[in-house]
Amino acid sequence: MKLKLAAKIITGFLFLWGTQAVSAQFKLPSLFTDHMLLQRDQPIHVWGWGQPRDTVEITFDGETQTVVVKPDTSWDIYLKPRRASSTGQSLRIRHGGGQYTLEDILIGDVWLCLGQSNMEWPLWKEMHYSDEVIKTDQRLLRFYNPTYAGKNVYNETFGDSIINRLEADRFYQGQWEVSNPETAKDMSAVGYYFGQMILNEVSVPVGLVNLAIGGAPLETFVGVATWSASKEHQGKVAGNWLYNNELPVWVRERGMRNLKRAKHVPMDGSGPNHPYKPGFAFEAGVRPMFDLSIRGIIWYQGESNAQEVERVHEYTALQRLMVEEYRKGWGNPQLPFYWVQLSSIDTTNYKGHLWPEFRDGQRRLLSMVSHGGMAITSDIGAKNDVHPTNKKDVGERLARWALHGAYGRTIVPSGPLVKSVVFKKDRLIVAFEHGKGLASSDGKALRGFSLDGHHPVPAEIWDGKVIVPVQDRPKFLYYGWQAWTMGNLVNSDRLPASTFRMPLTYDR
Length: 508
Description:
Blueprint: E1 13-17, E2 20-24, E3 37-39, E4 44-49, E5 55-60, E6 63-68, E7 74-79, E8 85-95, E9 98-115, H1 117-120, H2 129-132, E10 138-144, E11 147-148, H3 160-163, E12 172-173, E13 176-179, H4 181-184, H5 189-202, E14 206-210, H6 224-229, H7 249-259, E15 267-268, E16 271-272, H8 280-289, E17 296-300, H9 309-329, E18 337-340, H10 355-364, E19 372-375, H11 392-405, E20 417-424, E21 427-433, E22 439-440, E23 449-450, E24 460-462, E25 465-469, E26 476-479, E27 489-490, E28 500-503, E29 505-506
Parallel strand pairs: 3-9, 9-14, 9-17, 10-14, 17-18, 18-19, 20-29
Antiparallel strand pairs: 1-2, 4-7, 5-6, 5-8, 8-9, 10-13, 11-12, 15-16, 20-21, 21-25, 22-27, 23-26, 24-25, 26-28
Helix pairs in contact: 5-11, 9-10
């Protein structure tokens, strides 16, 4: 970019006109940098701030639009929608104080990556990295992968350099980058594999915006106004968040450790700012993006909300509230939203006892959210690590949902999802969506079925369904109802079945 605009805001540039120095003030959102990717087939929104009454002129791909800066210093311009283009274009900006240009702008599909550490997990830590790194040199894949304040600082007090960035407009700092071995290594591995598969299958440029925050609860990604307007969940923003019992205990404990002895922390009526504070990541990252068209969202989060019964029971409703807010914010009630179901983990070294119920809540959300989808990952968990290193399958399973739903491709999007459990005489007959070619993953007898969530029962595949023999009439059928599940039911695409607890219907 000419006059390099890589900083969060651009202010106070000096332009020399002859021997007279002229001072000008002008700001752009941090998303507007060289190598940016803009959403195809949607009006292109360019906005910023400047001196009132100054004229701003935008030229892009042969189109020029002008606007006068408003008294409140804001301005915005809409350019015509464009088809996908792999040819780098220049975006020229002129205003009362000067001119500069953003270079190498592509048109394609923008996907937003949100969540906590498993979404943040960088490609260089992923188990397939040594084989993948040679494939990362891809100019049609772009990343906006900003560093956030407090990244990689865990059980320590935040220093002044972090505290000074705990404001919404300073929290994320970064610029658009072209995928190559150097830039891709620090990108979200899940996002990278998702983007690569979309690029390979759809053949349009793909831009990934990664706003994931390690350890973050769902509550930080939802706006304060939305929490306040919710009768059921307005307590999320009542009083100081560090002492709010409606928030996950672990999250509040981490916040207290980070802010202990810290001085001059920005705060408001909900307490000191922190990446985990309800509404903070929304204000810092999500809400500013409402002005930028996107293709959809991928979400990998839940570990921080899955350690207490109350938090597990409410999570499905919270995620539904979040999806509704995002679709309203982007003005698109059909905005694709795809999420990752938590994987498997042993409870010896991790508090994962409630994960089966949590996974089932994530499954049930499928019936509540249209244009959504869930990547099942129970078969690729790490027994003693909350961070499984196989992120390739995670990203590609998310991409299956996107290809199926957002792009209309003929592809099986998921492993088997239970549709019904029918009690008939001495057996349960279990039907599945996406259940073509049911099989066991290892060729052995089916595992993972239970009538009480604890004791295994035999099951077999017959005529495209699963049959479970019973002697009495149970209330529920369970599958994969262990934190570390050994369930082995898959479909013909070798995709695993989801955890479920399903009530019975009765064959009359």
